[in-house]
Amino acid sequence: MPRELERADTVSFLIEQWGTLGQLLDTLTDDEWAAESVLPGWSVHDIVSHVVGTELLLLGSDLPTVDFDVRELEYVRNDLAGINERWVQHFRDKSPTEMRMLFAETMDRRAEALKAMTIEEWYAPTIGPAGPTEYGKFMLMRLFDCWVHELDIRDSVDKPGDESGPRAEAAFGTIVNSLGYIVGRRAHAPEGSVVEFDFTGPIEFTTYVGVQEKARVLDKAPEEKPTTIVRISSSLFVRLACGRVDPEQVWDDVELLRDQGLGAAIIRNLNYVP
């Protein structure tokens, strides 16, 4: 894919994602805004505060100060969570109407900023949640984060949405890119293993991870038979990867073929998203 097209797609998907999230927020009642979310310690309102706060940081806003140490909260377990929590606390007193307006205004500003960036700025080095990266790759992570938080809100208020299409596939692709890490470093697949992942929908495709010195996603189907086959919906997979569901509660929704021990180790170690 040409670099300019890659940039244009990411920007387009991000703007589309913000629009979809904004439309969802417009449907929420005040009770749904205040509802406990699937994220420990956070309401639906707090999820929106986190999304808005992150984009405000990218616009150059200063991190807000709060009158207590957020690291004292049980669910704040690292520095990144502490940054997120400061935005959550900062916006706690705003009404749903105020948050909707702030969300729309912030995302409009971010969209204009992204569209105005040069190619050099897009590929410039920066610091993302996982460390040094390129700005464009960081924006792909922003797409993933905003998409996942849309799912979080929908799950919290029982308002399912469409989890398929190019935007969802681009966001889901960030997990696919991490499959080598999941299979090799977390599940400890032995040397020579081949793992087949069959995603059954709403995003449907098959991909493979091979372990030869290092586990990596393969460019094509290998000639040898897979060591294990993991057949799972993309919906459940993303929720496992983000720690939203307990793997021990979803075995009926996962099909493991061939080496079931390795397959089970992969499912149990999917939660890698901080």
Verbal overview:
- With 274 residues, the protein is an alpha+beta fold.
- The protein folds into two domains: 3-160, dinb family like domain (Four Helix Bundle (Hemerythrin (Met), subunit A)); 173-268, 2-Layer Sandwich (Nonspecific Lipid-transfer Protein, Chain A).
- 51% of the residues lie in helices and 14% in strands.
- The chain is built from eleven helices and seven strands.
- The chain has a five-stranded mixed beta sheet. A two-stranded antiparallel ribbon has the order 1-2.
- A hairpin with a 1-residue loop joins strand 4 and strand 5 (214-217).
- The radius of gyration is 19 Å and the shape is globular.
- The relative contact order is 0.11.
- The model has no long low-confidence stretch (mean pLDDT 96).
- InterPro entries: DinB/YfiT-like (IPR034660), Maleyloyr_isom (IPR017517), MDMPI_metal-binding (IPR024344).
Tell me briefly what this model is.
One of its GO terms (molecular function) is metal ion binding. This is Mycothiol-dependent maleylpyruvate isomerase metal-binding domain-containing protein. The chain has 274 residues and is an alpha+beta fold.
Q: Assign the CATH architecture of the largest domain.
A: Up-down Bundle
- What's the story with the biggest beta sheet? 5 strands, mixed
Number of E-state strands? 7
- CATH class categorisation of the largest domain: Mainly Alpha
Q: Helices and strands: which structural class?
A: alpha+beta
Number of domains as seen in the coordinates: 2
Instruction: Please tally the helical runs, counting DSSP H or I stretches of 4 or more residues.
Output: 11
CATH superfamily of the largest domain: dinb family like domain
Share of helical residues: 40-55%
Beta content comes to 5-15%
Average of the residue pLDDT scores? 96
**Strands of the largest sheet, in order across it?**
5-4-3-6-7
| Uncertain spans | none
CATH topology assignment of the largest domain:
Four Helix Bundle (Hemerythrin (Met), subunit A)
Using the alpha-carbon principal axes, give the shape.
globular
Protein name: Mycothiol-dependent maleylpyruvate isomerase metal-binding domain-containing protein
Organism: Hoyosella rhizosphaerae
Pfam family, one: MDMPI_N
Domain Mycothiol-dependent maleylpyruvate isomerase metal-binding: 16-154
